[in-house]
Design goal:
Elements: H1 8-24, H2 39-44, E1 50-53, E2 59-65, H3 68-79, H4 86-96, E3 105-109, H5 114-120, H6 124-131, E4 140-142, H7 154-161, E5 165-167, E6 175-183, H8 187-198, E7 202-211
Parallel strand pairs: 2-7, 3-6, 6-7
Antiparallel strand pairs: 1-2, 4-5
The structure holds zinc ion (ZN).
Length: about 230
């Protein structure tokens, strides 16, 4: 079948544009030119789950440790607008989303601040849930402009997270899994869980794409400032 609206010339032009786009791309993991993500770096995005405990004692399961290739890919997606990377990263997230087959559990994204949404034009946790093949339930919204969490210690992060989210509707006992992109201390997860509890949701688990290697959680931790989270 031929589409009368697209001429062979048009298709060639599209092909040239796609080729130019690809040639201008570099792998976020290793800077190899001409690829959005090379095969070895794609392999480094295989989920390798790690559990993190929040200040309130909740367990958060993260698919990846926020370092090396994974950290560079996440930064490229979050800060440089490379949303195509949400596909392989969403595949990693899918590994830690507890199996929901046959049960009524919804995936609730941690909300993105208005400023971050305006800067990016997309909400990172929500995009990741979609790329993991699940429809997100937007039960939370950002309540106030939260300060950048970078450089804050555990207690400062907890204070900063307080009042940062609110429920958009009542849960009436609905079972939900809280999903964020990167967990650092877990203060944001604690705050979001508390708000969901109070609104009548039952938070059955919390998962993230990645966990920053802090507090000696991982022996490989080095004080690399590039692993600091940007909200
Ligand atoms: Zn690479």
């Amino acid at each position: 079948m031929t589409d009368p609206t697209v001429s062979p010339t048009g298709i060639r032009a599209l092909g040239r544009e796609a080729l130019a786009f690809l040639l201008a791309a570099t792998c976020p993991g290793c800077d190899e030119p001409g690829t959005l993500l090379c095969d070895p770096c794609r392999g480094r995005l295989q989920a390798s789950p790690v559990d993190v405990r929040t200040p309130q004692g909740r367990v958060v399961r993260a698919a990846l440790t926020y370092e090396g290739v994974a950290a560079r890919c996440i930064r490229r997606m979050k800060d440089d607008g490379e949303t195509l990377l949400a596909r392989p990263l969403g595949t990693a997230l899918a590994v830690v989303l507890p199996s929901v087959a046959g049960s009524a559990v919804s995936m609730v994204p941690v909300p993105t601040s208005g400023a971050a949404f305006r800067r990016r034009g997309y909400r990172v946790p929500e995009l990741l849930i979609r790329r993991a093949g699940v429809r997100p339930l937007r039960a939370l919204s950002a309540a106030h402009a939260r300060r950048d969490q970078r450089g804050l210690d555990v207690s400062a992060r907890a204070r900063n997270a307080e009042g940062s989210v609110r429920a958009r509707f009542q849960g009436a006992g609905a079972r939900v899994i809280l999903v964020d992109d990167v967990v650092t201390t877990g203060a944001t997860i604690d705050e979001a869980s508390l708000v969901l509890d109070r609104a009548g949701f039952e938070v059955v688990a919390a998962v993230t794409l990645a966990a920053t290697p802090l507090h000696g959680r991982h022996s490989a931790f080095t004080s690399d400032p590039s692993t600091t989270r940007r909200n």
